[in-house]
Each structure stands twice: as C-alpha cells, then as structure tokens.
Hints:
The complex is a heterotrimer of chains A (296), B (360) and C (283). With 360 residues, chain B is an all-alpha fold. Chain B has two domains: 1-29; 31-267, no CATH class. Chain B contains 15 helices and four strands. The longest helix of chain B is centred in the middle third of the chain and has 27 residues, at 216-242. Chain C is an alpha/beta fold and 283 residues long. Chain C is 36% helix and 23% strand. In chain C, helix 4 crosses helix 6 (147-163) and helix 4 (122-130) runs parallel beside helix 7 (179-191). The model of chain C has no long low-confidence stretch (mean pLDDT 90). The chains are: A mainly alpha (296), B mainly alpha (360), C alpha/beta (283).
Amino acid sequence: MEFINTYLPYILAGISVGGQYALIAIGYTMVYGILRLINFAHGDIFMAAGFMMVYLSASMPLYISIPLVIILTVILGFLVERIAYRPLRTAPRMSIMISAIGVSYLLQNCAWYLTSGLPKQYPKIPWISASVSIGASTTTVVTLITPILTIVLIVALVLLIKHTKIGMAMRAVSRDFETSQCMGIKINSVIGITFIIGSFLAAIGSLLYFTNYSTVTPISGAMPGLKAFVAAVFGGIGSVPGAVVGAFLIGICENILKIKELDMTTFSDAFTFALLIIILIAKPTGLFGEKITDKV
Amino acid sequence: MDKKIKIIIYAALLVALFALLFILEQILPSYSMLFTVLKKGAIYALVAVSMNLLNGFTGLFSLGQAGFMLIGAYTYGIFTIPTEARSAVYQYFDGGIINFTVPVVVALVMAGVAAAIFAYIIGLPVLRLKSDYLAIATLGFAEIIRAVFQWKTLGPVTNGSNLLRLYPTFKSVLFPFAVSGICIAIIVLLINSSYGRAFKAIRDDEIAAEAMGINLAKHKRLAFTISSFFAGVGGALLAMYQTTIQASAFKSAMTYEILLIVVIGGLGSVTGSCISSFLFIAASEWWLRFLDETTYIGSFKVPLLNPGFRKVVFSIIIMIVVLFYRRGIMGNKEFSLDPIAKQFKKRFRRRKEVVGSNEQ
Amino acid sequence: MSSNIMLQVENVTMQFGGVIAVDNLSIDVYEDEIVALIGPNGAGKTTTFNCITGVYEPTNGCIKYRGEVIVSNYPQGKMKKQYLGKNNGLYSKVINPTPDQITILGIARTFQNIRLFKNLSVFENVLIAKHLRAKQNVFTATFRLNYREERRMREECMALLEEQSLLNLKDAPAGSLPYGLQRRLEISRALATDPKLLLLDEPAAGMNPQETQELAEFIRQIKEKYKLTILLIEHHMDLVMQISERIYVQDFGKLIATGTPEEIQKNQRVIDAYLGVAEDAFA
C-alpha cells in the first residue's frame, strides 16, 4: 500500500501527460500518413493555443474563450497548411520539411515578440483544476479527465476515419496520393480537413496540458511536440491507435524516471529519444506500421 | 582560363582578404558590430558547410549538428582550461578529474576527433534509416548528448549543468577565419575528389550508386563522420567565441538555424553556405537590430518596433526564401570568377572589334 | 560455344509474402555468349536480375559466378512456414552480398527505368563507376595524393566517352540528354566498372525499329570490344532473335522453355504464353 501511495502520483501524472501527448501525436501521425511530412510546426500550434487561451481568458469568460481558442487554433493550423505547405506540394520532400521548420521558427518568434519572452500564467479553469485525493495522494481533476477524454475523442476519430466518406478519402489518399487524385478525390480538401482535425485535437491537448503545467512560454510547444512525434513513430506512423499507445507509454515512462529515488530526472527527456532510436533500429515501421518497399 | 593563373588569382584574393581583415582590425574599434558578424559568420560558415556536406552533397537529412558541436565545444573546453583555473571552474566538483591542458590547436583537432568518433559509433545503426526517420533519429541523439553532458555523475569531467569558462579564446578575427578557411578548403577538396563524386551519386540515386559498386553503408558513414568532425571543430570555435560553454545552449533550435542557413545558401553549394551564413548573422545580429528598439520620430512612436520584432521579421524573410526562392542564393552552383572573367573578355573583344571596324 | 561457365542461377525462388515472383528458376550463361531472358510482363524477369545483383535476397536457391557461389539462401524465420516453393532444404548456406559487392566481382547492370545520376554531368556519371577499382582512400583522395590514379580514371573515361561518341556532351547534365543517349550513357557507365558479365534490363524499351537496329549493332560491338558475356531482358523479339545465341523464357516466375532462337520461335508453350490460351485448351 505504501508502495502505491508513493508511486501512484507518478503513474497518474504519466497517464495524464500520455493522454495529452496522444492528442498531439494524432496531428503528427495523420499528417505524416497523408503528406509524408513531419509537421515540425505542430508543437508550436499547440503552444499558440496555450497563448490564445492566456490572452482571451483575460478579457472574456471561459465559456466563450475556450470554444474561441479551439476555433482559432483550427484556423491557424489550416492557414499554416494553406500558406506554407500547399505551394510546395510538388517540391522535394526535404523542401517541405524545411518549410515546416521555418513555420515553427516563425511561430516561436512571434510568440516571443508578443510576450517579450516572459512565461505567462495559464488561467485556472474551474472544476478541472480542482484537486481530488485518491487514497493518500492528491491530484487534480484534469489528471483523471485527460485519459477519459482522450479515449472518447480517439474512438470518435477512428469511427470518423472508418465509417464516413471523408474518412474513406483520407485512407485512400494516405495509401496512394496520385491514384486517389485520379479517382476524383479533392486532395486539398482532404489535407485541409486533416490539418483541421489535428489542430482541433492539439487545442484540446493544450487546454489539458497547460492546466497541469500552469505556465506557457514560446518554446513550451517544442518538447511536447517532439515527444508526441516520437509517440507517433513508436506506434507506427500513420496509425492512429499506434500513436495513442505510444503516447501513453512515453508519458508513463518519462514520469517514472522522475521518481526521486531513481535520480534520473535529467534523462526524462533523453529517454524518449533513446526509445525512439531503439524502435527505429529494431522495427523502423513502429508497432502497428506497414512495411513500404522501394521498387527497383 | 588557365588553371595556374586561376590558382594565382584565387590565392591573391585570399591574401587580400586577410590583409583587409588585418587593416580593419587596426582602424575600427574592437567592439564594432562588424567583428561580431565576421567572427560568428566564419564559425557558422564552417558548421553550415559541414552540414551541407551531408544534406546537400550526400543527401542524408541529418539534424544532429548541434549535438556534434556540443561534443566539440566540451572537448575543447575540458582540455584547455588552465590547471590553476580548474578549481574555480569546477567548484562543485573539487576541480574536476582532468589535470592537464593541451595546446589550443591540438584541442581543436581533439574536438573534431571526439565528435567524429561519436558519429562513427552512432552512424552504424542510424544511417540505415531513410530520410525523415534519419532526421528525427539524429535530432534525438543530439538531445540525448545534451542530457548526458548535463548529468551530475559526469560532473567531474563536464561540470554538470554549470558553465565551463576561463579557457583560452581568441581576440582577432583572423583566427576563426584561418581555422574555418582551412577546414572549408579541406571539405571542398573532399567534395571534388573521387569520394565526393561517390557522395553525390548516393544523393542522386542510391540504387544506381550501389550498382556502380559504391558501398552505401561505408560511404554514408564516411560522410557522416567527416561532417561531424568539422561540426566538432566549429563547436570548439563557437565556444572560443562565446567564452563560456553550457550544454543547454546547444538546442535543436541551433540545428534548425544552421539548416536554414544551408537552405538559404543553396543545398549543394559551399560558397552559398558561406555567403548565407554571413548574411544570416549580419541580418540577425546587426542590420535588423533597429527593429528591436523602441523608436520615436519626434513624439510619434513607431509602431511594432519592440524587443523581439527583429526575429519576427527575420523569420518572415526566411519563410519567403523557403517558399519562393527554393533554390536559395546559389542553387547548387558555386561562386566562381569564370563568368566574370568571360564577361571581361567579351567586353574587351567587342571594344577591339569596334576599334577594328573603325579603322576600315 | 566456349565451355567456360560464367553464371549459374540454380533453383532460385523469390517469394514476396504469399506471392512467388521467381519460381525455381535455373539459368546457365557461358562465357562469350549473349543470352536473352524473355517472357510476358510480370513474369519475374527483373526480379531475377535483382536476385543476381544483390538488390533482393532470394528466398531459396543459389547463384554461382565462374563456379563460385556468390549468392545463396534458404527460407528462414517467418518464411520457413510461409514458403511455397520447391527444393526446401536443399541449401543451407546464407550468402547475401550487397549490390556493390556483386559489381566488384565483375557483374554490371542497367535498369529498366533508366537510373542515371541526373544532376551530374555525363563525364561524372562515368567517372563515378571508376571509383570502385581505384587504389585510394579518403585521405589520399582528399589531398590529391592519388593524382596518378585520378588521372588514369579520367583518361579512361575520356576514352570510353570518345568511343561511345558521347564526348561532345561530357559536361551536359545527364538528365538533359535525349532518351536514346541516356540509354547509351547508362550502358557506358556500366562498362566503366570493367565488367565481365553485363546484365541489360530492357535496353530497347521505348525505341523505334531503327533505333533498335542500331542498338543490336551496338551491343554486338561492345561485346567484342570488351570481351563481355551478356544476359539481357527484352521485349523486342526482333532484337532478341537477332543477337542472342540462346533464349530462356520465363512465365509466372517459372522457366517454360529454353533453346536457340529458332527453337523458341516454334515452341508451342512460348506461343501460348505470349498469345494466351483459351481456358478449355487445358481441359
């Protein structure tokens, strides 16, 4: 019992942060599945959502600001695709990836400009910021809500992909870009919708994540972004359930490393990358990924 | 143009450049912004060229540059801090465990070698990965390196998350120019050698390169190791320039910056990388500085000009380059005097013809 | 026919998942011969080439070059259960060289869809092929201590381009060449690796009868000049019948016929494979 009391908070925090990573990771995995692009700007869109919340909630009540943050984040994600990625559709893959890095740089610098680089206090959202106690340990409601909300959203997403027309179009495009274009699928709208879904989930992830961490800085999107990407690779990039499993695993592992007795806190970030490299070398396609072979 | 004359002209230009730098140092005050740009620009030129060797010439999309620079910087710092200063630097680790120093030049080479050895070791598994997977794996390694160097247990060597300082640095702008110049010259020689051609073949078509008898694993590893060697030397130079070393400064943002320099200069162009690194540094450190200062014209406050605006403008410029001038400044061509010489010749000939026709 | 055997493909099977692309195929190529491998589209001809050149690891079987085993494999791991081919258990050695090791042995190839180094010049394309036999290391090459070797490589390439009448195009980017010349350059590049055995994958693809005729002449010439043995895949029957001494016919991965051009032309199974057979013909 004592064992559980000591370590339960870490595991709970792990599950919670895992859920948040999962919400971001879906944005990565879906975009990669369709465009074969590591959307380096995705973590910064997540960060931008955090700042929007900081500024909007200062001047309006939460029941308006929260939906507004989600809408604005979706618009931001859509615009990034429209302006920075769509013109490069026929360019070599490296160009579009560099463009993504450029967007990430731009968003970080804009955030720095607006905030003068100072960390901003994230608003308290009543109810989900409240504390609850489980056994002898206390935690916040958001910790408990995150995994549930994540699972619900993901089930909805999987249903969307499996059973709707647009979902079918997405699967077709991710399977073969050119052919689906020939079949009359409107590539641009499919890609646009992918970015919209990704940004929507990132916005929700950001609400949950920053409530937990309480401050936002211009670079606070970079690390969660990278970790979510690792989660996506771990689960097999392009696979939504894979990304979710990977995200929970990474969240839990990194929090276990934060346990004081282990004295490994320095490595809690590095661990994620070590995991990434191991999985890439052992099974480059990830847990649920498909094998792609080059034709000679 | 005759090859010999060409060599003489280029050598003369090089001597003129160094003479110019020397004269500038005599007449301009040492705090002039120009020297900051020249010093940092020279260092970034080296790192950018080393990255271009991988991304532009071998077609390996690696994002580990900051990690290799970190190894270089630390190696340099650890082996050059004077023994008497060690107890001050390693104050939390009883003066550290290394109690000797090596000369600066030796330390620079060691910095490169250390980075190269590490690259050689991780190259074997990592280089089997393709394009974006390789990018993300090298990025991951750079992050791991950063964590390892901040690890307390290694404190006696790396000083943990504390600064390394008091090691020898340079004052004159000639030093980074000389070191970077030599390194870049070696890279250019490599690129134009038989091995450089093999690298370019791998970039253009891996399968065909293999069918031509080029051992992919060996050559990729070679390019990776050599690139890292020079990134390590660049890291050491950067440490000398900054006078302190801290692992937390070598973030992936640094790699991105270098990548953007390479792209702006043109993937596959050494001269492009050099030109763009000076432009990049000059723009970000000097020319766009005014954007950061709150300015009044009379009593009218110029809008937008606030700290941080420089970087916003700067990143917008970069996005414009990436989106609309995808080939960068030089594309994959090199800057050379030949077209200029040709232009001269043409004009000269035309004048002759004009003179000739007048005589008739 | 010389009795020296150059290449032996022995019972090679290549299975991708549940599909057998090459089925228990055996081919012998003797020194100084031109042998053709023909068959309808999707018969597994290019896959056979890829097995010989180390691009794929065959699932089962072995390949010998001048009597020495250069490739050998048997079903392992997952394939052990999935394997549908014949001769399981006949081989127990695993030798899976990479394509560059095969090229060093003296087997060069061209590709069905031309694979030149498009951004590099014609001259560099050929020069790259000399890299594998140059006596140098990265240090000597960088500091030009290999200048003799480098000069030799350049001279040989110039001579080669001269012969192939590509010399006037030597500084043009390979990608800018017209299609026919790209084919020719690809063959020249393969020749620059100093091969004994040359594998040509559909060299006449996309050529008109006139060009095909010229190609036939060209193949004969290089064969004489460089003392080559040639194995080629081709769909242009007039070219195949004209230059090859023996023909192997592959269909659905399997070898269905072998013989001289005359024999093949009369072979009923070959005709059926190409023209198709009414289903009830088997009944």
